[in-house]
Design brief:
Layout lengths: L5 H10 L9 H9 L9 E5 L5 H9 L3 E6 L2 H13 L7 E5 L12 E6 L8 H8 L3 E14 L6 H10 L6 H10 L2 E8 L3 H21 L5 H16 L4 E10 L2
Parallel strand pairs: 1-2, 1-4, 2-3, 4-5
Antiparallel strand pairs: 5-7, 6-7
Helix pairs in contact: 2-3, 5-7, 8-9
Bound molecules: S-adenosylmethionine.
Length: 251
Amino acid sequence: MSDLDPFKVFLELQLALPRNGPGSRRATEAALTLLPPLPDDAQILDIGCGQGASAFDLLRLTKARITAVDLYDVFLEKMNARASREGIGDDRLVIKQADMEALPFHEGDFDLIWSEGAIYLVGFARGLKLWRRFLKPDGHAAVTECTWLTDNPPEEARAFWDAAYPQMGTIASNVAAAERAGYEVIGTQVLPPQDWWTDYYTPMREKIAEMRESWGDEIEPVLAEADAEIALFENNPGQYSYVFYVMRRKG
Ligand SMILES: C[S@@+](CC[C@H](N)C(=O)[O-])C[C@H]1O[C@@H](n2cnc3c(N)ncnc32)[C@H](O)[C@@H]1O
């Protein structure tokens, strides 16, 4: 078992959860209401869709056709199975394997780019710059990004995020970065703590306990890392959260 792949353990943990990052249908809907009404034939691109938590919500909240992309097949297989179960056809939902750094789309293909909990993988400013061209000239983007809610976080939180995601910004620095990347920021919304717990950290804790029972010690480093992230959030209320940035493409 010494050749155990930590990424496979991480995937098993993630696949058991209702969402693959903090968020909620309420937050998705609230971000949507900041946007001007979408045309009935709108095209939405959901980047880093995971198992499709936001894509399936957007299907119900809009009449748009949604293209959902993720790098990993295992998530897309689960999404395909759910789409079949729910009778959703490709007139509403296209599920595609693609790398967010090299998306196979054209200039101006989409009215709206959606991305929850995924832009950090390329960096907030870089992702916004990379994806801008896929929007129509007056298109919009709504993305969530883990963000400092304070200029002076406690040392424990600062040290964790300096190691995990050193470029994590504040709302003000991210708004400025979005403006520099060619967007006007229409609004921001801080995700409340329950959006971290209900569909993400609470079921993750349960799954960690189950995996500790059923696997051996060799997966402990992966589980301990996940446990540490949850404990950090629990011990540092109000210091950081995911924030929705809702934007319009300028020019
Ligand atoms: C934190 S999860 C968020 C998933 C989903 N949006 C949600 O909120 O449940 C980040 C997602 O990005 C995907 N991902 C990682 N690297 C990627 C890449 N280079 N291109 C596309 N997707 C990627 C992961 O597979 C994962 O599903």
